[in-house]
User: What shape does this take?
Amino acid sequence: MIFQPDLLKGQVAFITGGGTGLGFAMATAMARCGADVAIASRKPKNLDPAAELLGRHGTRVLAVPANVREPDSVRAAVDRTVNELGRIDILVNNAAGNFYAPSGELSANGWRAVVETDLYGTFFCSQAVHPVMAKQGGGRIISISMTLHYQGWPQMAHATAAKAGVDALTKTLALEWSKDKITVNVIAPGPIPTEGASKAFAVGGVAIEEALSRHIPLGTLGTPEDIANMAVYLAGPGGSWITGAIFVVDGGSSLAKAF
Assistant: This one.
């Protein structure tokens, strides 16, 4: 661990999609730094095993079912977190859905599912924690974007449009909520071989590791911990004067020509 074990002591982090992949890595990193953690997912089966593992770090852990596409579900999860853990200092908007689909054949349901999860969910969760953080005197909102929309990416119209929206939304919320001492920032990960990403981004039957590693200037794929480290930094004292920013964590891959 590269951060002090008490860096986030006394704080509560609410992390969507916290039961697996990047969300679980960020929840783990924050728990190791002393934060109490609420992990939310619309798939309850992902929550209990993750909560058990997180509990081994000695902080309080809450598993809360939530569908980020439904404002009422989000508000219920936020209310439960505040009731049981006392506050919310950090929100990580991590829940997302992606899959390849040619734009001409992308169904309306497929478009809605991704845009509502990635973009609507980011807004609904941010909106739900805003009054909590404002009442407390501040907070940190960290949203997970991507880098594919910087150059465009075939067969990913739904995801790239949604994540571009997340970037724009972040800048607006950062301005609007600065008076409440709430910082709002984005982390844009590059290729990270989580289970979900490997399924979503396998290219023509070629695994993501093989397809992408040779196109990254630093020569290796990232790890979930690389993203978690940035999230902890933004949540901690180092992030206190940063807002409306987009942090690209991708080994330089967004600088390289798309394959």
